[in-house]
Design a protein that fits this description.
The protein is an alpha+beta fold and 511 residues long. The chain has 17 helices and 23 strands. The protein folds into 3 domains: 268 residues, Bira Bifunctional Protein, Domain 2 (BirA Bifunctional Protein, domain 2, 2-Layer Sandwich); 108 residues, Herpes Virus-1, CATH 3.30.40; 108 residues, Rossmann fold. It has a 7-stranded mixed sheet, sandwiched between helices. A 5-stranded mixed sheet has the order 20-19-21-22-23, with helices on both faces. Helix 5 packs antiparallel against helix 7. The radius of gyration is 26 Å and the shape is globular. The structure holds glycyl-adenosine-5'-phosphate.
């Protein structure tokens, strides 16, 4: 589905709104509507269940957003959590220099994709994309150009050679996307943390940061949690919470926001075993996505060549969003960097006594970190489809449907009396709603013709509709309509709650 349609659908059907829209909005801030919050909660429930409640050696935490300012000095965020920014002098627009260059490369990649698609049409079933990409002269030349541009950019960024990043932008003749002007300022680093001030302490001393990742609340509580919950290494601490980043170039809807939610788990392991655990968590996390029904070809790993200052290995799980493959989740082997840094700056030991080895050490950490909002966007863009279905007159019509896995669908079941002014039908429907409401998020809807009500439920991804008609009053049966197959069957009204509950349970994702 086109990305514009995804954004429009999210607004029209109560999933996501622009923040402060009546004041023309605030860039990169979004609000979740009535169905959006249900979907988001269901995604979080799936993550929490699989990461915390289904692991005896992983426990949860909910740390404060504000932390002692030294935390961010220790973690490296004060000194190194920067984006390289560049301003266009004519349009006064500000951009991330690396994204301008990546955007240039993406245009070359689009040309490659066009060549690939043309060749696919020409060769039909015999087409071998990998072979074509490695042998077609024009494609190879374009790919080499992309690789050499990105290599130069990454080398310059890691050497902090910002003058060369500017030269690269000029050599590639990259123009301001807004004005077309090539009149650029120098590139400079911009720290992404939001800061605020304590009321009772003046100056730098009272400067507080809004956390840019939830992970540090886990590191600083490492010994508290280990001791008070009697965990033994290897064990994990998981947390879901808000994080804040002053993203200058906020694009692509909820993909990149200033305020967003992370679901992070830090797994503490014996030094020397971190690569095994890194491989384990990479695979486990990929399976977590696949269990939701995400097709394998929509997911891929991107192993990092350029590593963050704290990591000895890192990979992204990328998802094919409507604007291409992008990072959805990160798996990082963070070594003992964070705990060691906190030990040094706090002066407090953060060591674990390993009874089997009879020695103390600072554990190594393997982290899994996924943005809840990005996961939401991935699921929404995957679920939203337009398809042709048979209509009541024997013809075809188009329906808009969101094919969420039932376990994460915002509404699990709609209860629809065939007629709204028939007291018997309304009463039976309300009774059925009451029987369901404790177990699942159900919705009672009596307005409009039944066909329109089905379409409305399709558009928000409700997996089941239960229709109450005159036969219900005679034999206690209802029609159950399944969203994807459109099949309708009669079932006993007493069976309905168990069917809906079982088919929509998170358990379905694990068996
Ligand atoms: N603790 C490690 C960490 O924060 P990260 O790669 O910077 O690593 C982890 O962020 C995940 O958080 C990303 O994979 C992405 O899903 C999400 N994320 C990061 N920045 C975001 C933003 N500005 N808006 C929405 N999600 C974001």
């Amino acid at each position: 589905m086109d990305f514009k349609n995804v954004v429009a659908h999210c607004k029209e059907y109560a999933f996501v709104y622009q923040s402060s829209e009546i004041y023309d909005g605030l860039a990169a801030a979004y609000d979740y509507g009535p169905y959006g919050i249900e979907l988001k909660n269901n995604i979080k429930e799936y993550w929490w269940k699989s990461m915390v409640q289904m692991h005896q050696n992983i426990v949860g935490l909910d740390a404060a957003i504000f932390m002692h300012p030294k935390v961010w000095k220790a973690s490296g965020h004060v000194d190194a959590f920067n984006d390289p920014l560049i301003d266009n002098k004519d349009s006064k627009k500000r951009y991330r220099a690396d994204q301008l260059i990546e955007g240039y490369c993406e245009k070359i990649e689009n040309k490659i994709r066009k060549d690939v698609e043309k060749a696919r049409k020409r060769f039909g079933d015999d087409f071998d994309e990998a072979q074509f990409r490695s042998t077609n002269g024009r494609v190879v030349e374009r790919q080499e150009r992309i690789d050499s541009i990105l290599k130069r950019m990454n080398d310059s960024l890691s050497k902090e050679d910002l003058a060369d990043v500017k030269s690269l932008i000029e050599e590639l003749e990259i123009a301001c996307p807004d004005s077309g002007s090539k009149n650029w300022t120098d590139v400079r680093q911009f720290n992404l943390m939001f800061s605020t001030q304590l009321g009772n302490v003046a100056g730098e001393e009272g400067k507080l940061y809004l956390r840019p990742e939830t992970a540090q609340g886990i590191f600083t509580n490492f010994l508290n949690v280990q001791k008070s919950s009697r965990q033994k290494v290897p064990f994990g601490i998981a947390q879901i919470g808000k994080a804040f980043r002053n993203e200058i170039v906020a694009r692509q809807f909820i993909f990149r926001m200033k305020e967003f939610e992370q679901m992070e788990m830090q797994f503490f392991v014996r030094p020397g075993t971190e690569m095994e655990w890194y491989a384990h968590w990479k695979e486990t996390r990929l399976q977590w996505h696949k269990a939701l029904g995400v097709p394998a070809d929509k997911l891929r790993f991107h192993d990092h060549e350029k590593l963050a200052h704290y990591a000895n290995a890192a990979a992204d799980i990328e998802f094919e969003f409507p604007f291409g493959f992008r990072e959805l989740e990160g798996i990082h082997s963070r070594t003992d960097f964070d705990l060691t840094q906190h030990q040094e700056l706090s002066g407090k030991k953060l060591q674990y006594f390993d009874p089997e080895l009879n020695e103390n050490y600072v554990p190594y950490v393997v982290e899994t970190s996924i943005g809840c909002d990005r996961m939401f966007l991935a699921q929404v863009s995957l679920a939203l489809q337009e398809e042709s279905v048979p209509d009541s007159k024997g013809g075809e019509s188009t329906r808009t449907v969101m094919k969420f896995h039932p376990a994460i669908a915002p509404v699990k079941c709609a209860i629809l009396p065939l007629l709204k002014n028939d007291e018997g039908l309304v009463k039976a429907s309300q009774d059925l709603y009451s029987a369901l409401k404790f177990d699942v998020n159900a919705q009672y809807d009596e307005k409009d013709a039944i066909g329109r009500r089905y379409r409305r439920q399709d558009a928000i991804g409700t997996p089941y509709c239960l229709t109450v008609d005159h036969q219900t009053l005679e034999d206690n049966t209802v029609t159950i309509r399944e969203r994807d197959s459109l099949e309708q069957q009669r079932i006993g009204i007493d069976e309905a709650p168990a069917i809906i509950r079982d088919n929509c349970s998170v358990k379905k994702l694990f068996v």
